[in-house]
Each structure stands twice: as C-alpha cells, then as structure tokens.
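Here comes my example:
=====
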Amino acid sequence: MSGLAPHPTAPGISPAAPPRRASARRAIAAATIGNALEFFDLALYALMATYIGRTFFPDDDPGVQLVQTFAVFGMTYLIRPIGGLLLGSYADRKGREKALLLSIRLMVLGTALMAFMPGYATLGFVAPLGVVLARLVQGFAAGGEFGAATSFLVERDSRRKAFFGSLQFAGQGLATVLASGFATGLTAVLSDARMTAWGWRVPFVFGLLVGPAGYVLRRYVEESPALVRARDGPERSGRTPSRGGAPSRGGTPSRGGTPSHDGMPSHGGPPSPIRSVFRHHWGGLLLAGGALMVSTALTYSLQYLPTFAIKELGLDDSLSFAALLLPGTILTLGTPVVGLLADRVGRLRIMIPAAALIGLSAVPLFVWLTHAPSFLTLALCMTVLGLLKAAYFGALPSVMSDAFPVASRATGLAFSYHTTVALFGGFTPTIAASLAKATGSQISPSYYLLAVSLLSITALVGGHRICGIR
C-alpha cells in the first residue's frame, strides 16, 4: 500500500539534535497555546449548548433546540478539512511558524464573533447565521492548527517525538479544565436566566485574552529544524527514496511505501504538498484517520456527558459540569507521562489495549450511569474514560505524524485529523442526542463508542503489519 510507510526521519538526514532547553520551552508553549485556545472554544460550545440554543435557536421543544445547536457544532466541522488542506499546505511551503501565526489570528476573530453576536430576539434569523459564520471561521482556522502545531512539536527531537507530540493533546486537557471550570463556576453563581442572557459569553471573552498572548509568543520561536533540512534534502518534493536509500524505478512504490517519482523532472521544482499527499500518501491518510477515530469520538462523548446528565438524568447543572474537571485534569497531567513511556516501550503496546478497553467499557459505564444517576457515578465514569483516553492519546500524535514525510506532513496531518474529526467528532454530540431521543434508550450513545474503537484497532494493527509502525 503506497503511502503507509513511516517517515520518522528521511534517509540521508540525521535525526534532529536535542533542542536547547529555552528554545524547546518556547516551541512547546507556542505550539500548544493555539490548540488549547481552539479546544477551549470547542469545549465551551458543547458545555454551553443549552444556553446558546435558547439564545440563537428558539423552539418550543428543548430537545429539538439542543439538536439544532449541536447540528451547527457539527456542520461547521465540514470546513475543517478545507482549512487543513490550505493552511497545512501553507505550513509545509512557507513554514510552521507562519502558519501558526495565521491560524491564531483567525481563531481570535471567530471567538470574537461568538462572544459578541446578538441573539435571536435582537437580530431574528440573522443571529443563527452569525453563529454559523463564527463557527466557520473557527473551523477554517483550526483546520491548519493541528497539522502545523503537531509537526512543529514532533520535529523538535526525533528521539522524544511521542513525548513532544503528547503535549499537543495535553493542551486540550488543560483547555477542558478551564472550560469546565468556567461552566461550573458560572452556573453555581448565576441564575438560569442570567446564564442565558449573558453568562455563557464570559468564557468566550476570556478566550480573546489568550489569543494575543499566543500571537506574541509565536513570533519568537525558531522554525522546525526538520523542515529547514528537508527543504534542501531528498524530501523536498514530498518523495522519499526506497528503504535501501536508492530511488525505486519507474515511479512505482518502493517496498516501504511512497513512490520515489511523481512524473515530474527533478529540476521542475517541488510539487504542491496537497498533490503529494493525495498522489502518494493516501495510505497515510487512512492510517492517521483510522487511529484517530476512537479518540475523537471519546473526546466529544466526554463533552456531551454533562449535558446528557442534565437533560436525560436530571442532575444538577453545576455538579455535572464539575465532573468534566476530572478527565480534563487527567489528560493535562497524564498524557505527557504516557508520551514519555511510549518513547521507551513502544506506542502500539499502549494504544491498542487502551482502545480495546474504551470499547469494552463504554456500554457498562453508560448502563451504570443511567441506572444509578448521581454526581459520584458520573464523576467515576468520566474518570475511567479520562484515564483510558490519556493512555490512548499520549502516543497518537507521533503515530499520525509518522504516516507522512516532513515536506507534506502538516498537510497530511491536518487533512486526516479534521476529516476524521468532522465525521467522528463534530457530529458525535448530535448523534448521541439523536440516538437517545429516537430510541428512547439512554445507553444508545455507548454503542457508537464501541463501533469506532474497533475501527481504530483495525487501523493500528494494519499500520503495524504493513509498515512496521510500533
């Protein structure tokens, strides 16, 4: 299968030297802050869905109102693959640093629209259109964020790429803690009417304060050393030699994966990263996207659980949101630990068992929660899922990055990530809410997690057998 060969380091290019400590700290902060801001906004939208629905989607049926709100949440994910292709290609051609700066500008714009858009009572049908526009801007910006930031991290030090890559998702955990903290505090001190009127906007305004700090920080980081070397190395055009180091013949794939020629003369200049990804690395897209499925579905299932507990089980708003602090804290602190461990013992030895346990535990946890609804049960269920997610999450970014060569890595990562997120993440709350409403079964969303866990295990096993990813 063409495109499935791992590309930790291009032949003929020495591994990245360990980065200087100060430089590494700046790079980590610069790469993770934008992703944290992006995920903070996404988590807020899911947590504040009830109040956003009342503000922008008036309806006599609260269940229909919630589905409409989550439908916008999912619909705007459809633009993410487009943003991934365009901004990911920009990161591969112009540099990770420039792409990171552009993406955070766009994210701040989308957050501002969300924070200050008047409601339906003021603007009528224009109000929900404004929400859609805000989500589209955010979705396009986020499309390039993951590819550029993850590439920037894993390329700092090839010997610690699982650890450096895990910091990308640790930022997501921190964002979840902040978002659930805001939701918990605001719903504890504000009445339901005040939350609907203005309270839900407060954390979005906070997001605007983070954006400028991220922009300033990103202006003073060094470019990815691997990308600098690759611009003059054998990966310049997105092609890699065969395993023996010599080009394969006639443009056919080498045994390890990608074609060594794309039909263009070597002096014709580097091809577009987008064309390179779709011509030579479709196998990498399948591997990266497949591995991401269960993690993405679980992320948005965790975000949906507080709303599920409030709407379906009648639990207290503030306590339900507080339960999300637990998996957020686990992801923030546990994901880097798993990354360190994965660099030593192997990534798939951790990820495959974690994916299996996610699928096997989903149904019994939902059954337990629905039959014994309480804050303690909700907190324990989310703690278990948070631990399993951290175990799977830690090594995932580096596994995905190994599916693509340096010169087209940001493009491949961004497109595979956001296509998968659009299909298996953005619509997860909508699917969960719709399943519960259509079937009348409160445990029906758990079957979705079971199905996607099997798909991710299949992708990981295929990546190991076909191209030796470990």
